[in-house]
Amino acid sequence: MVRVETSLGVIDIELFDTAAPATVANFLTYVQSAAFDGTFFHRSVPGFVIQGGGYRWNTASNTVAPVPANAPVVNEFSATRSNLRGTVAMAKLGGDPNSATSQWFVNLADNAANLDHQNGGFTVFGKVVGNGMTVVDALAKWPVYSVNFGLSIGTLTGVPVDLAGSTSITAANLAMVTRATLLPTRTLSLLPGWNLAGNGSDAPLNVSTAFADAQRFVTVWKWVAGASGGFWAFYAPALAAQGGQVLADYAASKGYQVLESIQAGEGFWVNVAQNQASVLTVPYGNAVTSGALSSVLQPGWNLAAIGTTTPPQQFVTAQTSAVTTLWAWDSARSQWYFYAPDLAAKGGMVLTDYIASKSYLDFATESKSLGFGVGFWVNRP
Fold first, then answer.
1. 26 lies in which domain range?
2. Residue-level pLDDT at 168
């Protein structure tokens, strides 16, 4: 996962490193050398693409220079990775399929009929995930201009610029890439059977990629809280592997929605196949804090996660609204951890005795905290 920080917001890109290894390695070479830092999106064609990676703005001299190009990468186009909306592909020279270097673009629409069939096909090597397309779509609405950037660059057409009353072009009115970084990853251990896990990072988890292995994963579930009472979003890799509308039709028949991603601060259930204890590698950006969920949790049941090690009582204290109960699942023992702030407030052994009477597990006596990988239910009045 690469995070592209722009002047309009964050664009997270999931890379297809297994399907397009040479292209991803090429892209990461530019990312890890900071070659994209200080660049700008220099081409926007509404309803088609936005493109960057080609030119860097020098704020000291208010000049533009090309991004130094490495050796071209071999074309890795495949019809199984079409140029659909939200996918990321390499730009290249006309008439030369193997000419891609630093420039890349995001497809604003389904461009498969065009880009999959010209110049050897344009290699899709990733896709925008999370809320990134909101940022991309916002950029695509900017007006475009033909801009003469001087002798070394010449005139570029279709440059998105937000003049906002200005008559000169600077970094302030270009769609800048301030930084592009490779997000670190962490591993999450899952046991056979039901696991209540969580994404405590602001890096979204793409479900179809993370849980593609039908031999290991049976189903994945996320509860989506809302004013109407909420609903389940569902994913089954075995159904998805059958292609077409199989997964979507099954989900609709049960009143579910198809689960596509697990966002920051969201918990999820995953049913792991028997005898298939799994280690799940997940991208990890900035940790979600307890306070960050205060404005997110809905009345009723919420499936949540945070990224900092926190006892349940501290989590409850950080909320601006009351919490009735909090629950976490112990997969190994198939038992619930339980916390109720109103019982804890009565002091003494009230909470402990109640937990014992229900055969629950006590967060305090078990030294159990919320944190990385831990999904939990929060019930709000």
1. 2-182
2. 82
Name residues of the chain where pLDDT drops below 70. Answer: 165, 227
Answer whether 305's CB lies under 8 Å from 375's CB: yes
- Res 244: pLDDT: 82
CB 379 within 8 A of CB 325: yes
| Contacts of 54 by beta carbon, 8 Å cutoff, 6+ apart | 39, 42, 66, 67, 91, 102, 103
pTM, full prediction: 0.85
pLDDT of residue 62: 85
The pLDDT, as a whole number, for residue 227 is 67
Question: CA-CA distance, 365 to 352, in Å (whole number)?
Answer: 9
> Read out DSSP for 183-246?
PPEEEEEE-SEEEEEEE-BSS-EEHHHHT--TTTEEEEEEEE--TT--EEEEE-HHHHTT-TTH
Residue 301 class from Cβ within 10 Å (0-12 exposed, 13-18 middle, 19+ buried)?
middle
The SS3 of residue 136 is helix
Neighbour tally for 35: CB within 10 Å: 18
Q: Which has the closest alpha carbon to 28: 66, 55, 2? A: 2
Residues 356, 301 within the same domain: yes
Q: Hey, what are 19's tokens? A: 């399907």
What is the domain-level CATH number for residue 138? 2.40.100.10
State the pLDDT at residue 293: 96
pLDDT of residue 97: 97
| Residues 10 and 76 reside in one and the same domain | yes
- Choosing from 182, 204, 229, the residue where a domain stops is 182
Q: Which of 182, 208, 242 is the last residue of a domain?
A: 182
Q: How far is the C-alpha of 62 from the C-alpha of 48, rounded, in Å?
A: 29
- The reply to whether 303 and 361 lie within a common domain is yes
